[in-house]
């Protein structure tokens, strides 16, 4: 038997349980006055495959409760624990950019691999690491958001021109464009600080009256979309639509993106956000069916 255990308030967890046709119970998390956290599982997990749905945005605060929940589920008799982290944090620090820096993605992968039996996530930031298996020692399934994003574009945008704002986004932009039967261009980005970003046109823009659709895996400060919108404007293109797989930006940054001329901003529901418009539960359910070889604790 399978049961979904949900991070408190996760609507994606409820949608995923409905897709899987199984029970969904929320974790109870209590924060003590000193800031420490207590996790309680209020459902019987004996013999179950537990699907723990907990996104790893703001991972510093969430990792420990997730670890506590995994250990508790195991001690209460769960057969195996699959962590569904729709957003997988700490993937961008994938090398030592400056002397002395921690390679956080590798350390975080080791920690998560020590608490769950398997991992399912949506489009992690794979760049210098090209596969999760390079850093995760548990089976890890990547669920792509390209198909649902392409469907959204087909249904909502006339004459879309898919635009990747930087070289790293080419992998997502090219796939989405092909699924949406749209042309694709990729811009060139230079990031000189957390909020200092400049973008120039790289690929030539095909002739035609296009609606540019910026697509990126992550929107955090929103600066990439802001700089990309400016580059498109300089090239004489219309104001763009923007699609982020994972919307991490706060409302102030979102307002700045809109002020920069992005007339519509949507995201997948991997991170709860006011811009969520693209449902990932069906694709995640498919990813869960695909994941194999996670050892059963009963074996
Ligand atoms: C980085 O390479 C990612 O793909 C995104 O482009 C980046 O994280 C976006 O961040 P921000 O919204 O802060 O510009």
Task: Describe the 3D structure.
The protein is an alpha/beta fold and 299 residues long. It folds into two domains: 2-144 and 281-290, Rossmann fold (3-Layer(aba) Sandwich); 146-269, Rossmann fold. Helices cover 30% and strands 26% of the residues. The protein contains eight helices and 15 strands. The protein has helices at residues 11-20, 59-75, 104-113, 146-156, 170-179, 223-234, 251-259, 281-290; strands at residues 2-6, 23-31, 37-41, 49-53, 80-85, 118-122, 140-143, 160-164, 184-186, 188-191, 197-200, 211-219, 241-247, 264-268, 276-278. Strands 3-2-1-4-5-6-7 form a seven-stranded mixed sheet, sandwiched between helices. Helix 1 packs across helix 8 and helix 4 (146-156) packs across helix 5 (170-179). The protein is globular and about 60 Å long. Ribose-5-phosphate binds next to strand 12 and helix 6.
């Amino acid at each position: 038997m399978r049961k979904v255990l949900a991070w408190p308030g996760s609507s994606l967890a409820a949608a995923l349980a409905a897709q899987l046709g199984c029970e969904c119970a929320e974790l109870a998390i209590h924060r003590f006055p000193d800031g420490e956290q207590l996790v309680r599982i209020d459902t019987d997990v004996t013999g179950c495959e537990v699907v723990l749905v907990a996104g790893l945005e703001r991972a510093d605060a969430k990792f420990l409760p997730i670890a506590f929940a995994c250990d508790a589920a195991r001690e209460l008799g769960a057969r195996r624990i699959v962590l569904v982290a729709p957003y997988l944090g700490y993937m961008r620090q994938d090398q030592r950019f400056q002397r002395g820096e921690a390679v956080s993605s590798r350390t975080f992968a080791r920690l998560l691999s020590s608490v769950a039996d398997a991992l399912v996530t949506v489009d992690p930031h794979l760049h210098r690491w090209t596969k999760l298996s390079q850093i995760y020692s548990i089976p890890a399934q990547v669920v792509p958001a390209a198909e649902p994003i392409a469907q959204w574009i087909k249904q909502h945008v006339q004459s879309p021109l898919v635009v990747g704002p930087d070289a790293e986004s080419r992998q997502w932009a090219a796939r989405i464009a092909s699924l949406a039967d749209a042309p694709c261009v990729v811009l060139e980005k230079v990031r000189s600080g957390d909020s200092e970003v400049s973008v120039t046109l790289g690929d030539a823009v095909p002739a035609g009256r296009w609606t540019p659709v910026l697509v990126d895996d992550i929107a955090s400060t929103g600066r990439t979309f802001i700089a990309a919108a400016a580059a498109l404007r300089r090239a004489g293109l219309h104001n763009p639509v923007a699609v982020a797989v994972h919307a991490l930006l706060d409302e102030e940054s979102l307002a700045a993106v809109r002020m920069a001329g992005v007339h519509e901003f949507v995201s997948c529901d991997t991170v709860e956000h006011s811009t969520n418009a693209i449902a990932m539960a069906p694709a995640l359910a498919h990813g869960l069916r695909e994941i194999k070889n996670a050892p059963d604790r009963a074996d």
